[in-house]
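Incident log, support desk, overnight shift.

02:14 A customer reports that sequence design results differ from what the structure should imply. Their input is reproduced verbatim below. On-call engineer (initials T.W.) acknowledged and began investigating.
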């Protein structure tokens, strides 16, 4: 009938959206790295019997092909056979973990060898399953366990590496990042800089308005700092009101200093901070200490140099 509408149409649409979300939640994209067609067929058959979860399955028959595939595809889990034509044993797992450390891996062993399985877990796999014991139930169980274990480990690692107040990487992560950047610069010859940022007279803010207000200011500063950073840059909280920026992808020292002047100006713009259920506008300066990496310099030496330069600029 024209001019009428189905009163249940809205509810049906909502139910459909909820069902689609539920299906998406229980859908896994899996890469099977296996060169035996019979074993590949069995794996597909076992997973087709899972009525609680749907799978999008991809397969590659060598480690090199799998690595190329993973560069352009996002997967939730890898099922890895340790007997491949171009790589044998735990070496395959070590290479895969090195290239894709944020992805759960279940190792498929050709023999019932617990020692190999335990070594695989020590080398980065989430679980292992001997092919001789594989069936629909065991494979589904191993996949579910691997996905959940990986999620929990990622959460634990994130908490250990994250500053609880600002959500930025914490101090412990700075040294790892600097080590990585030094290695990259030694190979490529491209420069990078370490910048230490400190809020001027932050102690006075805490003393006059309280630590809760100070925490709100630090969170607002961290949020603005993140927005100002480019994709190639890195930012973390060093401690207190000190923050670290690692800046790369610039062509000259002049370009670096112009870039940091722009950031300093933006970071020193007024902040709106909640205090006693009111928004308070606060003007606060930011001092920077900039140092470029020099050949042979360690992360600790760079941090000390940036710290000295930052306090020298603050006194000025």
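02:41 Re-run completed on a clean worker. Output:
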């Amino acid at each position: 009938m024209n001019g009428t509408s189905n009163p249940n149409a809205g509810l049906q649409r909502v139910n459909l959206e909820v069902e689609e979300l539920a299906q998406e939640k229980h859908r896994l994209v899996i890469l099977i790295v296996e060169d035996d067609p019979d074993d590949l067929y069995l794996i597909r058959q076992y997973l087709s019997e899972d009525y609680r979860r749907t799978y999008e399955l991809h397969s590659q028959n060598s480690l090199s092909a799998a690595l190329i595939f993973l560069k352009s595809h996002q997967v939730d889990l890898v099922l890895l056979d340790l007997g491949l034509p171009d790589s044998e044993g735990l070496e395959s797992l070590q290479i895969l973990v090195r290239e894709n450390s944020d992805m759960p891996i279940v190792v498929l062993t050709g023999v019932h060898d617990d020692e190999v399985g335990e070594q695989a877990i020590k080398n980065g796999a989430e679980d292992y399953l001997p092919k001789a014991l594989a069936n629909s139930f065991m494979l589904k169980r191993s996949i579910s366990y691997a996905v959940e274990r990986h999620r929990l480990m990622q959460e634990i690692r994130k908490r250990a590496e994250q500053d609880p107040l600002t959500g930025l990487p914490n101090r412990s992560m700075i040294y790892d990042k600097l080590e990585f950047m030094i290695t990259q610069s030694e190979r490529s010859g491209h420069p990078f800089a370490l910048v230490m940022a400190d809020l001027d007279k932050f102690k006075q803010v805490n003393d006059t308005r309280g630590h809760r207000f100070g925490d709100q200011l630090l969170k607002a500063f961290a949020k603005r700092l993140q927005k100002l950073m480019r994709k190639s840059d890195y930012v973390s909280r060093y401690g207190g009101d000190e923050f670290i920026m690692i800046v790369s992808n610039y062509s000259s020292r002049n370009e670096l200093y112009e870039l940091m002047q722009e950031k300093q100006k933006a970071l020193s713009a007024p902040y709106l901070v909640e205090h006693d259920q009111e928004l308070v506008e606060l003007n606060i300066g930011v001092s920077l200490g900039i140092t470029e990496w020099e050949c042979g310099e360690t992360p600790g030496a760079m941090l000390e140099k940036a710290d000295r330069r930052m306090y020298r600029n603050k006194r000025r």
